[in-house]
Each structure stands twice: as C-alpha cells, then as structure tokens.
Predict the structure of ABC transporter permease subunit.
Amino acid sequence: MKKWLNLLILSMLVFVPIQAVAQSDITIQPGETVTVGLDSTFAPYGFLDDGKYTGFDIELAEEVFDNMGVDYEFQSIDWSMKEAELNNGNIDMIWNGYSKTPEREELVLFSDNYVEGRVGVLVKNDSEIQTIADLEGKKVATQEGSSQLEAIRQQPGLEESLDGGRVITFSSFNEVLQELATGRVDAIVVAELVTRYYFSQNGQAGDYRMLDEDFGITETAVGFRQNETAFVGDFNVALNDVLNSEVYEEIENRWFAELGGDESAEEANMLAPLLDAAKTTLLVFFVVLIVSIPLGLIIALLEQRAPAWIKAIIQVYVYVFRGSPLLLQLMVVYFGLPFLGITLDRVPAALATMIINYAAYLVEIFRGGLNAIPQGQYESLKVLSINKLTGYRRVILPQLWKVVMPSVGNEVISLVKDTSLIYILGLDELLKVGRALSNQYASMMPYLYVGVIYLALTGIVTIVLNQIEKRIDY
C-alpha cells in the first residue's frame, strides 16, 4: 500500500510538465475567439487596472486583432505555468513582455519581434560600480525566471564571482527595485524599458543610473503553439502593419518614457480594486466552508461504521490530500485532469480542489472528536431504544461540536489565508491584485492594504467563532 501511494504522489509531481509538452493537437480555428494569456501583475506590458486589462501589450494586441478582424479575449494566468496553459489549450498565445530565449524557442513558436531593449545594470548614483566587471564580490538581484537572469548566467563565471556565488531573485521587478533602494543589494539587472515605466510612476530616476555597459538586447515577441504556423503567418503581417504605423509610436511613447524623468504619476485609489478582488476571496472562502464542513462530517461518520474496505478508501483519500501541498493539488486538478477527459474551468477547479482538501483535514478532526465521546453515550442510545438518527442529532453531535470547535476554528481561519493560493489558476484574488497594484504604481503600499484587509477578515471570523463557542458551551 505504501509503495502504491508513493508512486501516486510521484506521478502527481511529474504529471503536469510531461503531459503539457505532449499536448500538440490543439489549433486556433478560423472564426473562433482567441485567448491571450498574460500575467495581470506585469506593468507596463499588461496588468489589471480598475477591473480592466491595460498596458503596452494590451493596446498593441487590440490594434493587431482589429487589423486581422479576429475576436479576442484576455485571460490572466500564473506566469510560471504559461507554457502549460498554452499547450493545454486554456490560452492560444502568450503575450506579456515574453522575451525570446533559446530555451523558450524549443517550447513555443514565436512571432516576429515587436520590442527590443537593453538588459542593463542599475545602480545608485553614488555607487562605485562602473562596469560589469565591478560586480565581482557584490550583491546583485534580478527577477526570477526572467531573460535578465538568463543573460547573467550566459556570462562565464559571472554569477560565481558575486557575493554568495549566486544572483538574488525576486518574483517581481518592484521587489527587485526595492532591494536596491534599501541598500540590501549593490546592483540589479533589469530591462531598461520596464525601468523607464517604473521611474515614470515614482519619480525616482534621479537617484539611479544605468551602466554604459550592458548584457545585450532582448527580443520580445508573442508565443504560440508549435503547430500554429498558418495563424502566425497572418499574425505577423498584421503585427508589422501596426509596427510601421503612427499608432504604434503613440502607444510606445505613452508607456515607455525616457529614463531620467522625475515627474511621478498620480497615485490612484488602490482600495477599490482590492475590495473588488476581496469578493473572489470571500466567494471561495464561503463556498469551501459551507460544503467542506458537512462533507468532512459525513465522511467521518461513514468511516466510524463502514466496512473495512470503505475505511481503507477513506484513509487513502485523507493521506493523499493531507500529505501533498494544496498548491500542487490545484495544479493537478486544473492542468492534469483535462488529459483524462475531465475539464474544469478555473473557479470550479479551485472550489472543488479546496473543498476536497479541507474536507480531508476535517475528517480527521471529526474522527478525533467522535472517538473522544465516551462509549457509554453510544450504548445508552441502544438501551433507551433511541434510533440512530435521533440519537446522533440530539446526543452525539452536540457533544462533538463542543469537542472539535477549537480545531475547526483553526481550519476556518487558515482557509481565509489559503484562498490566496488560487492565483496559480490565474484568478485575480486579493493578494494577486495587491501585487499587481504594487507593480503598477511602483509602491509597497498595496501590500499594507492587503494585510489590513486580511486582518479584518480573520478578525470578523474569529469573533463569529468565539460567539459560536459560547453558544455551544454548556
């Protein structure tokens, strides 16, 4: 049994990447609406602003598709899963500051380039660093999974010469820039175009300088499935028509100001989009809470009286869902099940996975509570000729709730925070939108607002739980 379970978990770990590469028979059909995949936190290329997608790539995409006469829609995805989303058919293209690299060219079919820019080194004005060679022994940071990181690693011996023998990486450019601003790193490797946008937002360009020496030019294009050669041919024609027009110059000038400007953009109301994103968080929270608690109780009661083979199935279920990370389970359900003929949309996939996961934890909590009730309570039901349904409803369950309520309360509070994991499915929940706002305005304030909202939610939940405990205290 243990060997079988280990093999099952191992297959879960490798299932998504193996199958994602194997999928190749999906193509864009004439007349259908194409889906553009983007990271909705990646300003200025594409991001969520006041409930709408905007940015350089968004405006460019609108012009190209209007030129082609193709209907389109934008879909937020987790950037680390972009190739899996593409090959699964959840999206039809990756368009969000997607840089060409030799590794990526093996996975996707790229369009013609539409942006080229320097990969440079940004330092503070008073830094002693003047050339790339001066980075030796210094702390250097960049964005994880980026073409900038690959550019560093293509320089023989450079990463090994840095302080600690490695590049420090963060999930977003804004976090990378904050490390330089606070002095925790000596230099950061960045795309100059993105740097221009950030300084146009915070007006801090005068505090920094780019080295004259750089890591070369990055080519940015749109990524398609390898078998989309016909569509990409038509796409390139429309793309180049837009690139050679005055419209493109207007779009480029609007989003990429010259490095060195000191005028910061006006900071908009950040609270409104966060409160809107909190609706998604609360939706997932309430649905999972309402369904998982009775489901966990039913399974625990079933396990108590069921035959041995049913108990074994329940124990395997609990073991798998308690023994593997919830984030992994979300990935397997959404990205893996389509290969078994089961396709769930993003919200149903998130709800189903979290319900099954939380029910598994609650099964053990209820099982422990049932075992804590003295055996004499069950025997008294037989002696008094009370039927099982009435006996459990009037005698056993009231005692059970008193025993398990503190543990159930802990799970409920954890659920509030675990809703943030649905970002992996591209859903714009509270923390993800906070990150998008942080990148959009080059500010850490959105994270403060997110923290306050989470504390408010957990505070309300705690008060409700305390009231329930008082009601059942006897």
User: Anything to note?
Assistant: Confidence is low (pLDDT under 50) at residues 1-23, 258-267. The CA atoms of residues 151 and 215 lie 6 Å apart. DSSP finds 18 helices and 13 strands in the chain.
